[in-house]
From TrEMBL:
The keyword Protein transport applies. The keyword Lipid metabolism does not apply. Residues 1-299 form the SecA family profile domain. Transmembrane segments: none annotated. One of its GO terms (cellular component) is membrane. GO terms for biological process: intracellular protein transport; protein import; protein targeting. Pfam families: SecA_DEAD (PF07517), SecA_PP_bind (PF01043). Residues 38-237 form the Helicase ATP-binding domain. This is Uncharacterized protein. It comes from the Eukaryota. One of its GO terms (molecular function) is ATP binding. InterPro entries: Helicase_ATP-bd, P-loop_NTPase, SecA, SecA_DEAD, SecA_motor_DEAD, SecA_preprotein_X-link_dom, SecA_X-link_sf.
Length: 299
C-alpha cells in the first residue's frame, strides 16, 4: 500500500528485505546471510553481483524482486533455460507467495493466454530467449488483446541470472522472427547437391570467426557451369544465396552439435546450454539448407 501510494523503493528496502528474510526462514528454513542481503542491495541499485556456485544467488534474487514488485508494475527474473525458470519459480517462489506476491513462469511451449497470465504476475520467471521473442511478437500484434507482456510499462525491473552469458555470449545471436515462404523452393535441394560438388579452398573459403563461407571466382564459375546458368547473381533468378547457405550448412552446421534431427525435423541446439530449442529456426534460408542436407521435409 505504501509503495503504491508513492513511497520510494529505497525507503522501503529495510522492511521489504526483512520480510523476505523472515518468510524464507519460515517457509524454506533458509535465512539470508548478511552477504546475501548486500548482494540484494547491489541488484536493487542496478549493479552486478558476482557470486560463486553454492552461495545462494537464487535466494538473493527474491529480495530485490519482492521490493520492486510492491508498486504493482511487475518484475522479470531472467534465467538461461526453461528448467531453471521452472525450478526457481517453484522453489524460491514459495516465500514470495507466502508474502501474497503472485509468481508466474513462462515456458517455451506455453500458449499465449498462459503467457499473458504469467506476465501479469508480480514476479515472472522467464528465459532471455522467451522474453525477447515475446517482445518481438508483441510488436507484430494487431490489437491489444494479442499482447502477452503488460501493455503499460512491460519492462519495469529485471534481474538477469548469468548476466555475462546473457548479455555478452548469447547476445551475439540475434533474435529474428520470420514468416515462411508460401512454398518451399526446390532450389534448396539442388543447392545441397551442388555444395557436395564444390571443394574448398579452390571453390570457396571459410571465414571461421563469422562462421560463413565465401565463394571464390573459381567457385562462382564452377557453380554456374554445374547449374547451367549464366549469372549466379541474376536478380530475376538468384542462386547465390542458396549455394552459400548450402555450403554453410555443409561446413559449419553439424548434426548433434549445432542441431539434432528429431521426429523428422531439424531442431537447433543451444550452443551454451546444450538444450534443444524446439520451434526456433535459423533465418535467411539457412534452416531450409540444413533440412535439405538432412533429407527431411523442407518447411
Amino acid at each position: 500500500r505504501r509503495a503504491r501510494g508513492g513511497e520510494g523503493a529505497d525507503a522501503l528496502l529495510p522492511e521489504a528485505f526483512a520480510l523476505v528474510r523472515e518468510a524464507s526462514r519460515r517457509v524454506l528454513g533458509l535465512r539470508h546471510f548478511d552477504v546475501q542481503l548486500m548482494g540484494g542491495i547491489v541488484l536493487h541499485e542496478g549493479g552486478i553481483a558476482e557470486m560463486a556456485t553454492g552461495e545462494g544467488k537464487t535466494l538473493v534474487a527474491i529480495l530485490p524482486a519482492f521490493l520492486n514488485s510492491l508498486g504493482g508494475s511487475g518484475v522479470h527474473v531472467v534465467t538461461t533455460n526453461d528448467y531453471l525458470a521452472r525450478r526457481d519459480a517453484e522453489w524460491v517462489g514459495q516465500p514470495l507467495r507466502f508474502l501474497d506476491t503472485s509468481v508466474g513462469v513462462v515456458q517455451s511451449d506455453m500458449a499465449s493466454t498462459l503467457r499473458q497470465q504469467a506476465y501479469s504476475c508480480d514476479v515472472t520467471y522467464v528465459t532471455n530467449f522467451e522474453l525477447g521473442f515475446d517482445y518481438l511478437r508483441d510488436q507484430l500484434a494487431a490489437n491489444a488483446s494479442e499482447l502477452v507482456l503488460r501493455p503499460e510499462d512491460p519492462f519495469h525491473y529485471a534481474i538477469v541470472d548469468e548476466v555475462d552469458s546473457v548479455l555478452i555470449d548469447e547476445a551475439r545471436t540475434p533474435l529474428v522472427i520470420s514468416s515462411p515462404a508460401e512454398k518451399p523452393s526446390e532450389k534448396y535441394a539442388v543447392a545441397e547437391e551442388l555444395a557436395g560438388a564444390l571443394r574448398g579452398p579452390l571453390h570457396y573459403s571459410l571465414e571461421e570467426k563469422e562462421r560463413r563461407v565465401a565463394l571464390t571466382a573459381e567457385g562462382v564459375e564452377e557453380a554456374e557451369r554445374l547449374l547451367g546458368k549464366a549469372d549466379l547473381f541474376d536478380p530475376e533468378d538468384p542462386w547465390a544465396p542458396f549455394v552459400v547457405n548450402a555450403l554453410n550448412a555443409k561446413e559449419f552446421f553439424l548434426r548433434d552439435k549445432q542441431y539434432i534431427v528429431r521426429d523428422g525435423k531439424v531442431v537447433i541446439v543451444d550452443e551454451f546450454t546444450g538444450r534443444p530449442m524446439a520451434g526456433r529456426r535459423w533465418s535467411s534460408g539457412l534452416h531450409q539448407a540444413v533440412e535439405a542436407k538432412e533429407g527431411v521435409e523442407i518447411e
